[in-house]
Every structure is written in structure tokens, then in C-alpha cells.
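Honest question from a wet-lab person: if I give you the sequences of every part of a complex, can you actually get the arrangement of the whole thing, not just the pieces? Trying it with mine:
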Amino acid sequence: MPELFLAGGTVLDATGTRRAHVRVVDGMVVETGDGIEAGPRAQVLDASAAVVCPGLVDLHTHLRQPGNEEAETVESGSRAGALGGYTALVAMPNTDPPIDSAAVVRQVLELGRASLCEVAVAGAITMGRAGERLAPLAEMAEMGVRLFTDDGAGVQDGRLMRRALEYALPLGITLAQHCEDASLAAGSVMNEGEWSSRLGLPGQPAEAEELMVMRDIALARMTGGRLHFLHLSTAGSVAMVGAAKAQGLAVTAEATPHHLALTESCLSGYDPNFKVNPPLRTERDRAAVRRGLADGVIDAIATDHAPHTQEAKEMPLDQAPPGMVGLETALAVAHTELCSGEGPLMSLAELLAALTWRPAAIAGLHTRHGGPIEAGRPANLCVFDPTARWRVDPEAMATRSRNSPFGGREMTGRVRHTIRAGEAVVIDGQAQR
Amino acid sequence: MTSLLAVEDLGATGIREVLRLADSFVEVSERAIPRVPALRGRTVATVFFEDSTRTRLSFETAAKRLSADTMTFSVSTSSVNKGESLRDTVETVAAMGIDAMIVRHRSAGVPWQVSRWIDASIINAGDGWHEHPTQALLDCYTVRQALGRDDPFPGLRVAIVGDIKHSRVARSNVAAFSALGARVTLVAPPTLMPPSLEGWPVEVSHDLDAVLADTDVVYLLRIQAERMNEALFPSLREYSARYGMTRERAGRLCSSALIMHPGPMNRGVEIAAEVSSLPNSLITRQVTNGVAVRMAVLFRLLGAPEASEALVAHA
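Yes, you can. This is the full assembly:
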């Protein structure tokens, strides 16, 4: 692999910010500094007026393979990830068959081996994600799986969730919960409230999420187990997780770019691209999620990238599947929403913490991703231009699906290059393979 | 205006225009040959993904009396049963060359989705729990006709009783009656109310007996028996005892009060059989007026503007 030289950028990592070029050889950062020079045969990439940061880590990606390759494959999803600045993705287990055994873990890891991002896998907590019997957590943990979830559904049975947390203790793994009480959410299309009432759509109340957050905090306290809350969407959830953290419980949480940016009123035109689970909530909830992120109650931004075919998203709203693609817009959306405009909510360094080193630690990927940019570290990097302005065009995306809620929106900040294990997989916004 | 998806599309002015246009079409409907050439050469398709008797017949009769060509698509005989998608289905119908598509679907929002895919005018003939604008227009027309005044609505006290939460008729009627200045009260147990009434120009009551004496129009909604399975009320008997329009309750209405129902009725549940045939019950007139009101809507969407002025002037 040729030497790579990132020239003229501002390096930003967990240790701070500095003007520095970055030299990469054989997949590793070998030298950084203001005065260093590129080797004679180096591939030089322009990083001027841009930030060189650790590659992004997504805790929550639906790659759809095996089973729904029409919507996404490991390859296409990884390409979308690389274009979004990601160097590692955690693939969710709600595939067909689900990732609930070593065999399917192996299959997905194998598919990811040559892709543009490192693909890690989240295993299912229960067999078939059916919420009835424990999946072989230890067997999957031995293959390096660090996160387990039945995402798409919450584990409804309190006793089973308790057992899972207890059984997980010696395995050093984290259970991730999709918090949704199935009975309160049954049949819902969107958030329950002003807009669902007006639009004549069945809604799910915030309490459907909050009841399970409340139960799981109690179970985490009881068992001492490590628990990660997926895609928090309500003010009440954020408040409860904040209180649990203040008590020292081993809980972490994520929020999605769409819950930071959008509200339930987006459904007013009955466009299924705004149907997602958990649903877009009220302005008050959105503000609380944003504040939770700024306060550190929410550790990470995760995409919940959920590709669906055009045909699926052209069904009537109540029949169309929930979900939005997000890998190619996450950083730009979060940056536009939180770091730009008047009165930004957080600094770029704080935003990148939520997109790189904190999720890397939650996913157990911190030895290769999210670490400081210094000699001797694996070169998984993103070069981000925080001032570039562009308009989202779902038709131009690398994901196989087009179900973005941000089509046509103006963004501030764009990924310029992505370096994965020393290889420039994205240069000037173009995937290289 | 190119489509009629929701009452809001018309506004108070538009509603009043439709009501006045309907006056002239009522007159047409009473002729020996109830037909005018207003929409000759135009093609209107009814595309119903949900069963309906009166609404479809009413629209088709309206289109024929305007001399439009009509096309009928119904789900039971169509390739939807072969798995054809919603979009393919409506695009296929549109490809036949149509000027308007009248859409009914059990899912809220389908007319909005369809309007993004095809160029024809779309008329919402009922979408899920959401809207049924022509029902609200014919209801307003029927009240106006019964009271014999051009604008009887300001201050008129309208009580809508029953399953508000799941009712497109209720949503459209709240919008239409309140736009015209009526005071709307929703009457239902809390489980049959929408979860939020934020922004709705209504008052709320859970006690039908308390509102009876102060009501000019009682509008009863159909109760579906399957709602019992969702724990929304214990039994039809208990519902009927608390919210049904019994003979006894009808007797406590003021003498000029009107009784309405969009049909089909569950006699003995939301309305007693003998109440539906009282002289102040407008239920049959609602059906009759449906044709003229839908003629007015079709004419307003598809007719030539100068023809519209001439017709109104003639009337």
C-alpha cells in the first residue's frame, strides 16, 4: 500500500486540536506534525480548511444481509458508511435469518472483510429475536461480538431480560435495548399526540418507550449488568437515563440524527420516508434529546440506518416499514443541527466525541477506531470540511435504498476523504471502489 | 384548486361556493332528464380500495348527471388481489386518460400519496380515520337546506356523538362546521376521543344528556362492534345506554333540533330505529343531497371557469 499524506489539516481527536500533517504507511499513522514532509511516492490528499479526525463509528446500522439484499448489502452499506466518514459499523441482527448464532455471525463478518468499512456484528439476545429463549451469547461473544440486541423489538419479558443481563456479566458484553412496550405501541404509525390525532393515524405514546427504559434501569441496578439504550427519543427517557447515570449505573445511550433534527409534524404530508421507529416525537422531546447529547447523558449519535426499497416505502403509510437511511448524512445533519448557525449547541470536538471515540468504546472497537491520531495507531480516519455547503440528493447515494428524510435539505459540512486501515477509500467525496 | 383532499383545501369561502353550486344541481336533479352537458368529454374514475355503497354510487351518479364518462375500479375485481402495488394500480388507471380520480382507502393519507404520482385531480372519498370532505360538504348542505337560510351556521350548536377517534366523518365535519362559524361539541367516552385535541376548535363532553337541551344538530357516528375488542368500551349495550340516541333522549331535544347520521346505521346501538324515521331526522336527505353536492365538487374541479359563472348566474 502506498504512503498516504494528509496535508494541511487540523487534527482533532480526544486529546485536543492541532495543526498537523498526517503520514500513513502500511495502515498505520507513522508521523504527525506541522513540519513533516511527504515521502517521494506518497499519495497526497488535501486536508486544508478541513478537520482530520478519527473515522466515525456507527453503533446502529441495518445492513440487511442476509435476507433483504434488495434494500442493502454489506458491500453497499459499507460504501455508504465510508462516504459518510465511517470506518466501522455495527450490523444489527434483524436479518433473515437473524444473527442469533455463530454461523450467521461468521457469515456477516466474512461478507464485511473486503468492504469499505470494518463491519462488526451485534448478536440477538433471544433466539430468532422472538423474545422467548436466550440466544447463545457466549458462543457469539467468543467470536468477538460485544453488543447484543433484539433491535426492532424490545425484550418484552422482564424475567428474560433479567436473566440475559445476569448471564452476560462474566462475558464482558453489553446488552442494547430497543425500548418499546409492545402492547402500548401496537399498530402505531407515529408518535401519539397532536399530530396523530389530526392526521387520523394510530400513535404510540412516549410512555411505550419510557416504561421499558424505566424497567431496564431497575434491572440494570438489580443485576449490575451493562446496558445500552438504543435510539432514545423522548424527554422522559433522557431524564431517566440521566438520573441512572448520576447514580453510577453502567448504562449508556444513543440518539439518532433524525431525532435530533426532525419532529412528528414531518408526517403531515403522509410521506412514508418520515415513518421510523421509535417515531419522530414532539418539539419538546427533540429539544430534550439535543440537550441530553450536549450534557453527555446521551453518549453517542447512531444512525439507525434502515434501508427499505422504493416499493416498500410507496405502500400506504400504515403498511410501509419504518426506517430511514442515514449513513451518508449523519455527520452533516448533526453538524448542521448542533454546531452551525446561531447559538450552536456544542463544539465540533464534542460532536465528534459522540460520533467516534465514545461509540468506539461502547462497541469495544476502541483499539482500532476512535483513538488519538498519533504515531503507532491504526489509520482509520475521516477528513471533514466543516464549511462546505451541499444539498442532500437521495438519488445520488451509494446505499441501495432512497428512503432519506433529508432529501433536498441544505447541509453545512461535508466528508472529504475517508481512510480505512491506511487505504483512501473515499477521496473528494468519491468512493474509490 | 385542482384536488379536494381535505376540507381545509376549500376554506370557508370554498365551502360556501360549493353549497351555492349544489343548489343549482339540486334543481338539475329534479328535472325529468336530470342531466347537463357540463363535463362532456371528461373522464372520472372511481378507485375504491375499500367497500362502499353510497359514496361510490353517489359519485358515479353525480359524474353521469354532468355527462362525464365514468370508470370504475374496485379492489375485489382488480389485480390488487394479484399483489399489484398501490402506485402501479393508480398509475395504470391514470394511463387510461382520466381527468379526475376519486379515491377511497382504508389507510389515512393515501390520496396525498396518489396526488404525488399522477396528474389528474384527486378527490378524497375517505382515507382511513382521517378525512371524508364530500361527506362534510353534503352534511353542511343538508343542514342549510333544512333550516331554509343561506347561512344558518354562525353560532349553530352542533354535537358530534360517538367514535370520534376513528372517524373521518368527524374530522371533516369539525373542519367544515367550524369553518362556517358553528360551535362544535364532541361527545364520547374518553377512549373514543382522539388522544389530543390540541388546535381543534371544539368543546368536549363525556355526557350526552348534559348537552341535549343546548344542541341544534345532533350528529351520530357509527359504532363498530370490533372496538369492544380493543377495550375502548365494555359492551354495545353499555355504549347505547350512555351515548345512544334513544327515543327518550330524542324527546328531550329542542323541537327544532336536527338528527343526522352518515350511514350505514347500527339501529339500536347509536340510534334507535324509531328515531331514524322521526320528521326531524335528515338521514335520507343526506343521501339525496350527496349527489348534488358531489356534482358541485366535480364541476368546481373540472368545469370551465366561465361555465361555472354562467351556471351560478342561471341558478
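Two things worth pointing out. The radius of gyration of chain B is 19 Å. The interface with chain A takes residues 85-87, 105, 107-110, 112-113, 127-131, 168, 171, 194-200 of chain B (CB under 8 Å).
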